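<goal> How does this chain fold?
<sample>
Here is the protein in question

***
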Amino acid sequence: MRGGISYWLSEHPAIVGFRWGADQLWLATWPSLIVSLSLFAVLAVSLHFLLNLLGRSRPVPLGPIPALHSLAVAAVSAIIFVGTLLSTAAEIRDTRWSWRRLHMASPLHWLLCFPVGTRPSGRVFFWSYAFYLSRYLHLPRALFAVLRRRRRPVARVAAQCALVAMPFLWLEFSQSFQVLAILAASLAHVLVFGYRFWICAAAARGDGAAPPPATVVMGCQVGLLWCNVACHVGVLVLHFGGRRSGGCSGIGAWAFNSVLNAGLLWIFLDCYAHYREKRWRRKAVGCDDDCGSTRHWRRRRGRRAPSKGEDKGAKDRY
C-alpha cells in the first residue's frame, strides 16, 4: 500500500517529468493569472456593492455550501501535503550526490535555498503547481465573507488574490524555500478547514455540545505566520552570508513576496485584534469559519450554555 501511494504521488512519470510552462498547463501564463484574478475581484466587489444597494445587512443563508467547500479544501490540501513530503524525500535522495560541488551542507540548506539556475521542473515543482491551482479553490471564501456580511470584504478579496499570485511567482522564478512554505501551508489548511467542516457539520446536526474554541484556527494561522518568518530569515542568511557564492534562486521574487506577506500580516493583525477585543468583552466568540450561523459559546461560572431554542435565536440574530 505504501509503495502504491509513493508511486502515484512521487514516482509517476507525469510527476517526475513535470515542466512548468505555458504549454498544456492551466493558468500558467501572466495574462491568465491577471484576467482570472481581475474577474474574481470585480465579481466580489460588485456583489458587495449590490448587497449594500439592496440594503441587505443580514447574512445571506448559504446552507451546506461552506461545509462542503471546507471538506474539499481539506481533502485537496491533505493530498498536496503527502505528495510534497514524498516528492521532497525522493528529490533529496536523487540529488544529494551533487550538493558537495554546490556547497550545500544539509537537506535544510537545499529546502531554504535552491541553487541559482534551478529550473521549475520535477517532483517538487509539480506539487508547487498543484498548490498554485488549489489556491483558486480558496477564492470562494472571499465570496462567503461578502455574503455573510463580514468585516473588511475588500481586504479579504485582496488577500485571496495575493495568496494566488504568490505560488505563481514561486513557479515562474523557481523561488527558494517554497517547499517548506507548501508543507506548512497545506498542513495548516488540513487542520483549519477540517475544523471548519466539523463545526459546520455540528451546527447542521443541531449538536448542543459546545465546539472547541476558535483559537484552533487562530493558532494555526499564528504558527504558519512564524514559520514563514523563520523561512524568510533563513533565506536571507543563506543568500547573503552563506558559503555559496551564487546566492539563492528567485531572490527577486522572494523580495516581492515579502511585500505581499507584509500586507497579509497587516490584515491578519487587524483580524486578531478584533478577535482579542471580542474575547476581552466576554462575548460569544465567533470564528471566521464562513459558516456564518455558527457561534462558539464560552462557558462562564453562573451562566448556562444556551439551549437549542436559544441557540437558534442567536443564529437568526447573527
Q: What stands out?
A: The two ends are 47 Å apart (CA to CA). Residues 2-19+26-317 form one domain.
